[in-house]
Write a structure and sequence with these properties.
This protein is α+β, with helices and mostly antiparallel strands and 94 residues long. The protein has helices at 26-33, 37-46, 63-71, and strands spanning 23-24, 53-55, 58-62. It comes from Agrobacterium vitis.
């Protein structure tokens, strides 16, 4: 398992280069991993993503916790084919 201190590259940066982006809201998490916001909720429920942190009414996901959680996802060693009925079940809605 990858530990937080093993992530060397750090979080993505905001438009102000000197201010690191440490947390993302629900919409930003969805955009960052290429899924819909409803899918983010499902992934939290299923344990594929950690639950958000809460400060008053604001919910924030820590960038490093998302990265660590994604490293624990299983690798897909089989290429997808048209026969796969749910081949892209987490595809972002357009």
């Amino acid at each position: 398992m990858i530990k937080t201190e093993q992530i060397r590259s750090g979080p993505p940066f905001s438009p102000i280069a000197s201010v690191p982006r440490l947390g993302l809201n629900r919409v930003e998490v969805a955009a960052a991993i290429g899924v819909s916001v409803g899918t983010v909720d499902l992934m939290v429920t299923e344990g594929f993503l950690p639950p958000p942190r809460r400060w008053h009414s604001r919910k924030v996901w820590l960038v490093q916790e998302i990265a660590i959680a994604m490293m624990d996802w299983p690798e897909d060693s089989n290429p997808l084919t048209k026969k796969d009925s749910n081949a892209d079940e987490w595809r972002a809605s357009v």
